[in-house]
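May I ask for a protein sequence together with how it folds?
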Amino acid sequence: MSPLHSYSVFLSICMTILLLQPSTTLSQSHLCRSSCGNIPINYPFGIDDGCGSPYYRHMLICSDNNTKLELRTPSGKYPVKSISYSDPHLLVSDPFMWNCQDRDNFRPTRSFSIDSSTHFTVSPQNDYLFFNCDSEKVIVEPKPLFCERFPDRCDSSCDSSSYLCRHLPECGSALGSRVSCCSYYPKATQSLRLMLQNCATYTSVYWRSTGAGNAPYDQFPEYGIRVDFEFPVTTKCLLCQDTTKSGGVCGFDTRTQNFLCLCKQGNITTHCNDPVLVKHKHIGAVAGTVTAVSAAAAIGVGGGVFWYLRKVRAKAPVTCGVQSNENRIF
């Protein structure tokens, strides 16, 4: 047998050993935190990679020793005040927005924005209040009554007779006579940026429901930005979460983003009571973990290859530097 053929056989054996080494992965379900501070983290969200839906991967950040939850957007990171899963939305705050303590001291601000390619949208339930706008560039006037029935006909003006301008939440008449206020809902991020170019500052008010069930009369204004999100429910996830099947956690493979059911005894693509998982106790590539061969095995195989090459070279015939088909190694 020629040295080249012998080496090929030996290399094939080594690769087979590598592939047959058992996986030493841990169960991803133990790595998925279920809360950040006092805010529960449930599907479709996850604050650990591989948990939840890949739609929201890296969108939520939990910091400060697991006490501070933030939403990452193109315009920055914003503290999350609450998450509702029954009425899918997040309530976030913007530290740069005007608040009651500012009164007529307007600080530099920035426009809040959401990436349109994500599964987040800024809720139409938000009301934006703009202060001290340039009347030569912004139409500031009271909106007529018919605007309530036909709001599309009044989009171009900023309503100076807004109820919220006359009844600022939590701070009454915090604005002095030198400050003007109007209400306007920008339909796009660019519209918000244009408004801020011609107004001193702005704030967002979200109409929060008390749950009394008498909408819209059970709502009250609260400072913040409501961000709606899609709830991607799949049959696989429902099967994974089924408590009669040991109740797993829905997640995904961090390399392929394919669905995975994260269980205490390992991870699988079906559910935690799957006979395959129960029998073998471990499945191959797992989200958020590394499926790898032990370092000792890798070093051993590498040493074997080095030893074999030296042995082959030692037995190769001496031909005074002339290489032939008989002594060729590579």
